[in-house]
Design goal:
By secondary structure, the protein is α+β, with helices and mostly antiparallel strands. It folds into 2 domains: 69 residues, no CATH class; 80 residues. 42% of the residues lie in helices and 19% in strands. It has a 6-stranded antiparallel β-sheet with strand order 6-5-4-3-7-8. A two-stranded antiparallel ribbon has the order 1-2. Strand 1 and strand 2 form a beta hairpin.
């Protein structure tokens, strides 16, 4: 311990037991200090930070300086992170978060566009791969079979219409 010492009520029997059962290898005062510092580190790293308020970084500088570098690194990476990648398919760009559906064998099948791919049950597909998967391995024309609904939109757009719009062949109705 460094600096001034503060005496905290601590049961003498517990103190004596720690010394006796450890054959004098443990100093209860040092043990208590180490446990409190370890708790502070864990709370700073994994807790809600409710105890420290706006002084959380000041507390970390004193008791867990290794966290300061990590927090700064995480802040920097979150600032430089880009938006999730859209699905780019020829000249068509479908935003991440869009829904995709395909009707096959009397059923609608759904998936989502995430980070440049069509994702269904954790598996990632190109448009052609997903259309073939939905059609049980048969070859399909994904431009004619896939429909996309962009985030916050109520309308489903046929992939072929998106392709024609991207090529300037289809005018958007207003």
């Amino acid at each position: 311990m460094t600096g001034m010492v503060l005496h905290i009520p601590f049961p003498k029997s517990l103190y004596d037991d720690i010394v006796r059962f450890s054959d004098g290898k443990l100093n209860p005062a040092v043990l208590a200090e180490n446990l409190i510092v370890a708790w502070i580190e864990r709370d700073l790293e994994f807790g809600e930070g409710d105890y420290w308020g706006e002084r959380i970084e000041e507390v970390a500088e004193v008791y867990a300086p290794h966290l300061i570098n990590r927090w700064e690194s995480e802040r920097a990476s979150s600032v430089t992170q880009t938006m999730p990648r859209p699905l780019i398919w020829k000249k068509v760009e479908v935003p991440s978060g869009s829904e995709v559906r395909m009707a096959y064998d009397g059923m609608h099948h759904y998936a989502e566009v995430r980070d440049g791919k069509i994702v269904e049950n954790g598996n990632r597909y190109t448009p052609s791969e997903w259309a073939s998967k939905v059609a049980n391995g048969t070859s399909r024309n994904a431009w004619r079979d896939l429909w996309f609904r962009k985030p916050l939109s109520k309308n489903w757009d046929l992939a072929d219409d998106l392709r024609k719009r991207a090529a300037g062949e289809l005018k958007i109705a207003i």
